[in-house]
Amino acid sequence: MLEVQNLSMRFGGLLAVDQVSLDVQEHEIVSIIGPNGAGKTTVFNCMSGFYKPTGGKILFEGREIQGTPDYRISRLGMVRTFQHVRLFNSMTVVENLLVAQHRHLNTNLISGLLRTPNYRAQEQKSLDRAWYWLKRVGLLELANVDAGNLAYGQQRRLEIARCMVTEPKLLMLDEPAAGLNPSETRDLNQLIVSLKEDYNVSVVLIEHDMSLVMDISDRINVINQGRPLASGTPDEIRNNDDVIKAYLGEA
Amino acid sequence: MAAHNLKHALFCAIVTLVIAYPILGFNLTSSGTNIVLEGAKTHTIGLVLLAAVAVFLFQLFRDNITGLLGKAPALNPLANRQPMEQSKRLKLESTLLTLIIVGALFWPFFVSRGSVDLATLVLIYVMLALGLNVVVGLAGLLDLGYVAFYAVGAYTFALLSQYYGVSFWFALPLGALLAALFGLVLGFPVLRLRGDYLAIVTLGFGEIIRILLNNMTNLTGGPNGIGGIPDPTLFGMEFGRRVKEEGNTSFHETFGIAYSSEHKIIFLYLIALVLAVITALVIRRLMRMPVGRAWEALREDEIAARSLGLSRTAVKLSAFTIGAFFAGFAGTVFASKQGFISPESFVFLESAIILAIVVLGGMGSQMGVILAAIAVTILPELAREFSEYRMLIFGAAMVLMMVWRPQGLLPMRRIHIELKAQE
User: Fold this and answer.
1) Which of B3, B42, B132, B392 registers the highest number of CB atoms within 10 A of its CB?
2) Alpha-helical segments (H) within B26-135
3) What is the pLDDT of residues A24-45, one digit of tens each?
């Protein structure tokens, strides 16, 4: 459903991403790994519309989307999380989820001001959806707490829930396990797999935690210094000499 | 005493001298055709020196003094209480508001004409501040040219009535809509800008509108302004002694009461009150709607908001437009109240005062903004005897507020949407 072809991104004299290609099929978890500074997040930023790539094509469900504004891309059904959690800190947990459903509430100002039954039904629907996802990620008791007061692991889960209430087709997770303890990482592992299995969402994952990556990925792409290094199933990547070299240095 | 304390204190004392001596120590007096510079009396110079010494001593012992102040029992007995539950707070707030509104409805019939007039002005500022609160407090866009939209509202009514004889009631929505349109048009180019840059550009727009009004002499009369703006009518009843327009009747004749110029003032006050209440209610509702949440989300984290499909342009423009809309409302009422407007009424200071009201009241907090609007408008009137020092007092009050209560008089307490337990 997503196809990235020869993507390049140049910042002045720095070629941050050079001819990277990858593709994601429906019902698949694809990981992007690579050493720090390899250009993984830059690829993400191009895919989610934050950067306009300087070369290459990005196709989502057959449509070229490179250079489309970020908010449009997320309306197409490609939603991302961030390396550093970005929540609306002074809003409550449930309000964070309501903001995300902004585009599902196709209400106009007048019907909202008059609180028409239709508006109220819509509002109730989005509250129900928020309730469902809070329950799903185990944050129901904290629904009315300010998001900024949550523990770090809870904030991570809230960020994923916030993506999921928009009912995406493709979820892009940028280092979702960063800063989590092993048991939280295990929970996250299960959550991501269940997103794929139960909600039919494809996932693109950037992650440094190898146990997580090897466990849940269907395919892995390795990037090194902006260039694609290898791609394949977890087993292929584990035994790839180039990858071992890039990660461990040459012996 | 640490050496740097002494140094700092000396420096502060010298600054006091350098500032105070030239201002207070010299007088310009005219002798015949010439102007002569005279030294002040020794009395004044003594006072300046005394002030410098006072500053020196305060700065020298500042740590001790502030330490002592810190030990004093908290002045605010409510400081340590638990925050009230939201449902309780909302109930209390709405009862209080209803009481205040009912009181405000009857109040003008018992007080002097001057107070009612002043209260109308307060209500105009309440409308302006509530509107700006949307832009600055909720959407987090620092707008220093807000007065431009106020001017658009006022001039719409003035020009329409001058050239086409349009009445107040017709001009009211037109003025607000035109101001909103200006908000939309001016909003477009500035939306890419953030923070300081946005502030400077909006400041520029505010000035452009004023200078345009000043220089388009054949349309707006330039600095001479526009006079003879009609008063509002009540179902075709005029409030003047004689009926100006054909087909209208006069208020006092219809009801068979003696003519009094107070009727008109009270009527204007009531219009302003109703409009201010409408403004407050509409914005209160907006805050809890998806668009209100979008404003706050964009203020909190623009990148996250965009990644969730919120269009930055649409959200910011809506805040700009709605803020401008209410400024247009206020402008129309202002034009009608004054009967005469000129670009003089829409200078930058006006923008600054409205912004000061929002900051003083507590960004985003409606009750706070209303309180601050009352304080900022009425205090200068009460302190008429010190009118020379008005701006000085205003400035000092602002500094003290920002030191002691930077979050504003009544800081914003967000109305949360609560998720109730479900089966």
Assistant:
1) B132
2) 42-60, 62-71, 86-106, 113-132
3) 999 999 999 988 888 889 999 9
